[in-house]
Amino acid sequence: MANTEKTVRVRLVKGLRGVQARHRLSVKALGLNKTNDVRELKDSPQVRGLINTVYYLVRVEE
């Protein structure tokens, strides 16, 4: 079997000015730095939790 792990693409669509420090850390944990940065991450409950925390800053592209 080849790579069968599910992945999720996450894009940062809003800037981080005026955002809670905790949410800023969640975005950093997702590996996103600048607006329009995209990361392909393993789909796990931990990653989904981070995405749910900053749902208003990111777009999920499955």
UniProtKB/TrEMBL annotation:
It comes from Dyella acidisoli. Part of the 50S ribosomal subunit. This is Large ribosomal subunit protein uL30. SUPFAM superfamilies: Ribosomal protein L30p/L7e (SSF55129). One of its GO terms (cellular component) is ribosome. PANTHER family: LARGE RIBOSOMAL SUBUNIT PROTEIN UL30M, MITOCHONDRIAL RIBOSOMAL PROTEIN L30. Belongs to the universal ribosomal protein uL30 family. Keywords: Ribonucleoprotein, Ribosomal protein. The keyword Manganese does not apply. Residues 8-58 form the Large ribosomal subunit protein uL30-like ferredoxin-like fold domain. It comes from the Bacteria. It holds the Pfam family Ribosomal_L30.
